[in-house]
Amino acid sequence: MKELALFVSLVYVRFWHEAPLGIKAQLNDMQLLELLMNYPNGTIAKAARDTFSRHIWYFSEVLVGLSFFDDRTAADVKTQMVANLQIPASNQSVKRLDSPPEPLSATGLASCVTQRTVAIFDVLLLNGKMNVQNFLVKYPKEWNDDPS
């Protein structure tokens, strides 16, 4: 019981608390998986990793685009994400990635971005794909000041 209480209080509660925030989901999931890789109790870490890995269905090429709006994602990672919008979409299911990206870090977010990711802008904004071109050419630190 002590080990479970430690795991919940030291690791899980932060991610559970932020779970409803879609913008933070992808980076949080990568951080949680990374924490689980280094968690000292191997039994708990493996059980949590196995269970959590079945619940990353929303980590897709499209929804990873929400990370463009996460202030915790570094500007250089966002710049790489913009560059990766030129990568052709994968042949895999649009619905989800088969496994979390490697490396398990913020830079791993950029590796999930493809041409398909730009669809998130159409979801968020009328004619988003067209309107976002002026937005994405700016340096990421200027994005918060852009009215679009």
Chain-wise SSE layout:
Layout: H1 2-18, H2 22-38, H3 42-53, H4 75-84, H5 106-110, H6 119-124, H7 128-136
Helix pairs in contact: 1-2, 2-3
What report would you give on this structure?
This protein is an all-alpha fold and 148 residues long. It folds into 2 domains: 2-53, no CATH class; 63-145, no CATH class. Helices cover 51% and strands 0% of the residues. The protein has helices at residues 2-18, 22-38, 42-53, 75-84, 106-110, 119-124, 128-136. Helix 1 (2-18) packs antiparallel against helix 2 (22-38). The model has no long low-confidence stretch (mean pLDDT 82).
Strand content: under 5%
- Tally of helical runs: 7
What is the rounded Rg?
17 Å
Mean pLDDT: 82
Number of domains: 2
Quick one: biggest sheet? Answer: none
The residue ranges in which pLDDT falls below 50 over 5 or more consecutive positions are: none
**How many DSSP E strands?**
0
Please name the defining characteristics of this protein.
single chain; 148 residues; mainly alpha; 2 domains; 7 helices; elongated
Short description:
51% of the residues lie in helices and 0% in strands. The protein is an all-alpha fold.
